[in-house]
Amino acid sequence: MAELTAAIRIRADDRAWKDLGKAARGSKKLEETLAARKELADFDRRDSAVQHLQKLQADLGRTATEFDKARKRTAELRRQIRDAAASTDALRRKFEEVQGKGSKLPSSHRKQCAELRSLRGAGVDTRRLGDFSGWENPPLLC
Questions:
Q1: Of the given ranges (20-29, 70-79, 123-132), which has the lowest mean pLDDT?
Q2: Helices (H) and strands (E) in the chain, counts
Q3: pLDDT tens-digit profile of 115-134?
């Protein structure tokens, strides 16, 4: 009977070890599957980071192009403003010069008219001092 009890125990132990072996192999496969899933998740994160980096590089390229265009346009506008300021200053100086000369003309005209009247009073014929028939803008006579 002791032999039968021992045989039953051995057979039970064999079955238990078999089941434990299956469980161990299943556990090992589960562990490998979980490790593979973890590696896939890591790969997905790295792939996502690479895609994000590629998108940033493309955006950076577009931004650099736009920045270069804006920089060139700003330089062109700066040049135009500088040229306009220089031409405006030159125009202002020319205007002031012409205005100064123009402001002296009425008094000069009055003096010349006075001289002309004084010559008429002296008996000199001043009606035809010059023939202005070919001039576009003949001078004003008093």
A1: 123-132
A2: 1, 0
A3: 877 776 666 555 655 555 55
Structure tokens at 106: 């009425």
Tokens in use for 135?
Answer: 């001039």
- The torsion angles phi and psi of 140, rounded to 5 degrees, stand at -75, 135
| pLDDT value at residue 121 | 66
Q: How far is residue 124's CA from residue 48's CA, in Å, rounded to a whole number?
A: 107
What's the predicted TM-score (pTM) here?
0.40
C-alpha–C-alpha distance, residues 130 and 132, integer Å = 6
**CA-closest candidate to residue 109, choices 63, 75, 141, 62:** 141
Residues 6+ apart with CB under 8 A from 43: none
One-letter-per-residue 3-state SS of 44-75: HHHHHHHHHHHHHHHHHHHHHHHHHHHHHHHH
